[in-house]
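Weekly structure sync, notes
Attendees: PL (lead), two postdocs, one rotation student
Agenda item 3: pending single-chain targets
PL asked that the sequence for the first pending target be pasted directly into the notes so everyone works from the same version. It is reproduced below exactly as submitted, 340 residues in total.
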Amino acid sequence: MSMPASNRRNLLWLQSGGCGGCTMSLLGAEGPDFLTAFEAAGINVLWHPALSRETGHEAMAIIDDILAGRIVLDILCLEGSVMMGPNGSGKFHMMAGSGKPMKDMIDALAQQAKHVVGVGSCAAFGGITMAGGNPGEACGLGYEGRTKGGLLGDDYIDQSGLPVVNIPGCPVHPDWVTETLSQLALGLMAPDHLDGYGRPHAISGTLVHHGCARNEFYEYKASAEKLCQIGCMMENLGCKGTQAAGDCNKRSWNGSGSCISGGYPCIACTEPGFEEPGHSFVETPKIAGIPVGLPTDMPKAWFIALASLSKAATPPRLRKNATADRIRVYPQRPKKGKNT
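Predicted structure, written out during the meeting:
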């Protein structure tokens, strides 16, 4: 059953400095698809630059009506970073048909919106477009990397008392988008539902490590040495699943997997600053043989002690399989009467 028009919430989606990958990911939403999810939550998409039929003057007319107060804007979504350059002018990215920098248009619309949402790590923190010395002066809506501020400033609060709501990821998981926007549309989001980076606890309350299919290897520190091998990728191959927010291994992407289950380490794309780790994504930096990036909440002394015990207790099966490209030694029950 459709929600009455008077109860529907208007959403405007803009794209700025990014690749459009978060929209591509949203198209893969399942159970339900994003259109069904929006309909159930009473979300009316006023305009989306890639999915709407309106273009040119028609699209600008919608934006003009919002700015003039003729259309109520309940949720403003930004995908991609805000391009502030050169020299803070914003002229690296002009809003087509307006003659104005995109950053100014985003700012003006944010003042009209009841809620502002950063979709993806670029809109949240600056993301990939900040990398390489940030020549475009990119930033997020409410953050510039780990520093609070961004386009809207560190004191921005929306009409309901929320900061910018950030849905991180590169790209973002489609279900994170549909669930967060549904919460906002239904008035179910409160400040204590967000972490220190404005991320819903439904996302940031879980680590990518949780539900990882390689956890048995992790527990015994049975580590892969090459990408094609099935052991834990934390020790040698740069995996940051123990440090990164997200339920990627508990909530399948496209119904089937995640980066890690696909054979690639977690690069912590939900975290600010992931784009420039200071080393290769598939390398684990170490000091005296100890990984620099330790699991969240894990003191170094505990990690060293537990890792040493774990390695000493590693079953031969895991030790052999860790550096293989598939399971070579299968679990075997001890023979009856044998205590092995």
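Discussion points:
- The longest strand covers residues 9-15.
- The mean pLDDT is 93.
Action: rotation student to compare against the earlier draft before next sync.
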